[in-house]
Amino acid sequence: MDSGTDVDSGLDSGLAEAGAVLAAEAARFASFGWMRGTSGNLSVVVSRDPVRLAVTASGLDKGELTAADVVLTDAEGSAVGAGRPSAEAALHARVVRLTGAGAVVHVHTVASVAMGRRRPEGIEFRDLEMLKGLGHKTHEVAVVLPVIENSQDMAELADRLEAALRPGMPAVVVAGHGLYVWGDDPRQARHHAEVVEWLLELALAG
Ligand SMILES: CSC[C@@H](O)[C@@H](O)C(=O)COP(=O)(O)O
Ligand SMILES: [Zn+2]
């Protein structure tokens, strides 16, 4: 077997495993009401060299995904092989490239859209124990969740995300759209998503 075939078969088994993980994560997010209709998408890095992401397929009900409903993409979010990845795959790929994240979550939550409207300049959180869930050592910190303008042009949206990234905040709100959150792996990305959404719901409650 040549080394190219070894790489291919490793990616194939990685993709199948990633599909099962992402389907389970998506079912959980859908049960929270964060992926209504066909909204939202998820990705996980399956290889760093070459860069390959498993991204949920486009246009599906994410609460009904199976392990086969993922598409392998390259470092730009373009499909490698069969299937149509999420329309937002390029944004996932940019997050991975910029932050070194191993998994990215995109959900359409009401609180992210509502708070994005209220605070288009960014949403500040301070003096909250829950901030330790984003890796901070103490509640005595102030962090800003950036809000970026939406676009149907993924390259433009990715540039906005890149310009808006803030230290200590593994998330960005896309105005009128939803929330992007990331972590080292799908489990940490989910924990970050749960923490950021909790912060947004608190801010909304006033
Ligand atoms: C209600 S569909 C919204 C989509 O345009 C998009 O924002 C989304 O989150 C899902 O797109 P998808 O291509 O299925 O990953
Ligand atoms: Zn979306």
UniProtKB/TrEMBL annotation:
Pathway(s) of this molecule: Amino-acid biosynthesis; L-methionine biosynthesis via salvage pathway; L-methionine from S-methyl-5-thio-alpha-D-ribose 1-phosphate: step 2/6
Keywords in alphabetical order: Amino-acid biosynthesis, Lyase, Metal-binding, Methionine biosynthesis, Zinc
Any single Pfam family the record assigns to this protein: Aldolase_II
One annotated Gene Ontology cellular component of this protein: cytoplasm
GO molecular function: methylthioribulose 1-phosphate dehydratase activity; zinc ion binding
UniProt catalytic activity: 5-(methylsulfanyl)-D-ribulose 1-phosphate = 5-methylsulfanyl-2,3-dioxopentyl phosphate + H2O
GO annotation, biological process: L-methionine salvage from methylthioadenosine
Record: residues binding Zn(2+): H106, H108
Co-factor binding details: Binds 1 zinc ion per subunit.
Domain of life: Bacteria
EC number(s) given by UniProt: 4.2.1.109
Domain Class II aldolase/adducin N-terminal as annotated: residue spans: 20-204
Record flagged with keyword Repressor: no
Enzyme class: lyase
Cofactor (UniProt): Zn(2+)
Protein family according to the UniProt entry: Belongs to the aldolase class II family. MtnB subfamily.
NCBIfam families to which the protein is assigned, alphabetical: salvage_mtnB
PANTHER family: METHYLTHIORIBULOSE-1-PHOSPHATE DEHYDRATASE (PTHR10640:SF7)
Role according to the record: Catalyzes the dehydration of methylthioribulose-1-phosphate (MTRu-1-P) into 2,3-diketo-5-methylthiopentyl-1-phosphate (DK-MTP-1-P).
Stated name of the protein: Methylthioribulose-1-phosphate dehydratase
